[in-house]
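Table 4 source record.
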Amino acid sequence: MTSIDFYSRVADPLRFAAQLAAKAVGQHGSARVLTADAASTAALDRLLWQESDVSFLPHCRLGHPDANETPVLIDESCEHAGPAAVLINLHPEPPPFFSRFERLIEIVGAQEHELAAGRARYRFYRERGYALENHDRAGFD
């Protein structure tokens, strides 16, 4: 069964997703980041390119020709056919393919609408019998 961790009240969800993606690649070899929309995907892409040369994290979008050889896939598409180790969710809805992954990381921002969407996702997984861990990030970012 998929292991699910919630990180709630995250001040900068995109930056936190980038940090967790780097950790996931180090531990599992790959990660998929599901963003909320095309603008979020573009912003995360820019953020990952702005990292220093020594910490660059190879990444591309899901439909890119090099996707099968790239450790981090970022996209807003609610489909997934590639590796299934770690899924980082920035989307306001539960990903329809989350159960294919060994681990799901839900990132919940600090704004009220983000918290409400996070609570709804939490209920969704709990009602389906998943064990959930919550990590409150208020004051950490």
